[in-house]
Please model this.
Amino acid sequence: MRHEDKPVVVVAGNGMVGHRFCEKLKALGGFRIVVFGEEPRPAYDRVHLSEYFNGKSAADLSLPIKGWFDDEEIILHLGDAVREIDRVQRVVHSYKGIIQRYDVLVLATGSSAFVPDISGIEKEGVFVYRTIEDLERIKAYAPRATNGAVMGGGLLGLEAAKALLDLGIPRTHVIEFASRLMPRQIDSAGSHTLEASLRRLGLQLHLNKTTLSIEGAGRIESLQFTDDTRLPVDMLVISAGIRPRDELARLSGLAVGTRGGIIVNERLQTADKNIFAIGECALVQGMIYGLVAPGYEMADVVATNLAGGDKSFTGFDMSTKLKLIGVDVASFGDPFAAEPDCRTIVFEDRHKGVYKRINISSDGKYLLGGVLIGDAGAYHLLLQTVNNRLVLPPDPEDLILGGRGGAVEGAGVMSLPDEALVCSCESVSKAAICRAVTEQSVSSVEAMKKCTRAGSGCGGCTPLVKDLIAGTMKAGGLYIRNILCEHFEYSRQELFDLVKLHEVRTFEEALRQWGKGDGCEVCKPAIASIFAGCWNETIVKQAPIQDSNDRYLANIQKGGSYSVVPRIPGGEVTPDKLIVLGKVAKKYNLYTKITGGQRIDLFGAHVGDLPAIWEELIAAGFESGHAYGKALRTVKSCVGSTWCRYGLHDSVSFAIEIEERYRGIRAPHKIKGGVSGCIRECAEAQSKDFGIIATEKGWNLYVGGNGGSRPQHAQLLAVDIDKETCVRYLDRFLMFYIRTADPLTRTATWLNKLEGGMSYLKNVVVNDSLGMGGQWEVDMQALVDSYHCEWAAVVNNPELRKQFVHFVNAPRKKDPGLQFEEMRGQVKAKEW
Model:
């Protein structure tokens, strides 16, 4: 067909969905495509828009590759939207005067931010959160603000709140009209868990609030609510929902819904057979779909039908998983199903901010839906279990608790049916992913994105895609490379060896030699952990790639204060040191608690007070307890033969020796130990990463245990060994773990996944089957010899001390947002 004879398809809108439609139709061929885009740049990734504040440029977010529009099949008009549709003549008129004929018109005008009709909405300092231009304006204004607020507690509102936090605004508020956050996605209990986690991170939430007016003389100064309360703010971002952009359809006489949206049938066709609507502007069966995945499916439906196919849009699964300000949030299937129509199973850990709920059918056979807060690792397989109506295991609680058989982890992905839709954004099935591995030798997520596009949309399916690649390769006897992330094509173990071999000590150098891009929240702390495992340098020297706890050498607590945790080896402390702890706690008004790890924690410290507090503690002989780090926490002990009439050996002295040997050594995850003086096990050694129990002939060594939400007993590694042998085996075990475990993997999980399990570990550690025992002992001794108290390094370094301030421009000022209240004669973080 000659170019001039091809049907002309005009697309009004150049957002993510409009661009996807162009991609689909261009791939099918046989059409001339003309696109009118309102914004001054080609389509970009709005799903990851907030990453603009983390260093990504507009070019990084751009969807079309360079040169995509350079052929004659597609024409793009930027900064020029369609102004009018002449349905009789089948032409559109643009704002810049272009008159374009069409055979088919596709409306992909998307949505705009819903801006409530509030007095003062036009004031300076009020923004919406929708486009890159909006973000540029927010970014330019942010340095002038100290009190920022976001109107809206849904997905977009919390994204906007994260943006304000990233911009360094000292106090950020979220105002929500409803009684809870994310009321459309998660249940009330899940929302309360999310709220508690966000408040611990310093976000201030105001629920059940209706804004009456925005006050200020030309510039926003405060928000006045209908309940007669007032909130001082100097910046407001409105993210209270979306409104379908249906004005073009209205003007041309097309039917729209009473609450907005262009009415279409299941083929996305309007009342005019030559005009279609897709994405957030389309009203399908009375519903507006505000996620990108259903918009992509709409684009595929229209493109397929224009090319002669037969496809309908009959609804879409609105399950979603995302990380909001560092907190996992997910809902799938029917999250609000309730008894007696179903049975619910709930797990809640308020200490760790974890809430999990699953709804199962009354007969216990099928999963209907659920909510995950704080830990959404099982989301993808749970979603597949719902979508494919897989029969549940005998103990369905294992789906969220783990334990008996690990019903939803690891190899479970390979049991999914071939037709299971793994990537909903791109409509990629399990079979397509497995075929790409076996037939095209795809072996990484990045290669899979290029081959099938799986994972290239919202990215939520990436873990499942990764598991399917690994499972398929393993089934075919192929070597599996477990790369760290998209920026490093190496596993953590490979990077550890490279860093050690080339003596690399900075993230920039590692990125230059073996990586690409700028790095991410996955690889930065992982590389920092590797540096610590190799060189044991002061951790705050790597502050830009650490999380907040390592950055400030303290755990951030509820309300935004920090904890102070000195090391008390073996739980043994002198009266003089106890007196010092009491004096410091009184001086800085800290909450004091004896923990389960046999030490004393002090809570409620201002970040600016941390160096002064530690200066006093270090002068009294204390040192950092590393409660904030992925390192050895404590080695718990009983009193052993020193005092106990049943004690066989001096467990306290041995616990102190072990803790002082391994203190400060960084690992993929935190490590805990225990030493018991007899089989009565008062130190609970078998619930630790390593546990030592006295016997009549020596000591038994156990490894690979942990407590927490998935408790696991440690396994016996060696029997009746002396102290020197016990330390030698521990050196080997810990170095083997440090060098080979994936990031954020506890020893229990590492051991569970280790090929050959405990038998293999015994062979490696006890029998030295790899011939590495001697080298690991040397490596461990180098770490032991290089130990230094991280807080002592900070206290004695004026430049490092400067990092510990709340306000960079007012270093002596404390956070006025920290509020406490009295409880049993001490302070606690005030409830919001």
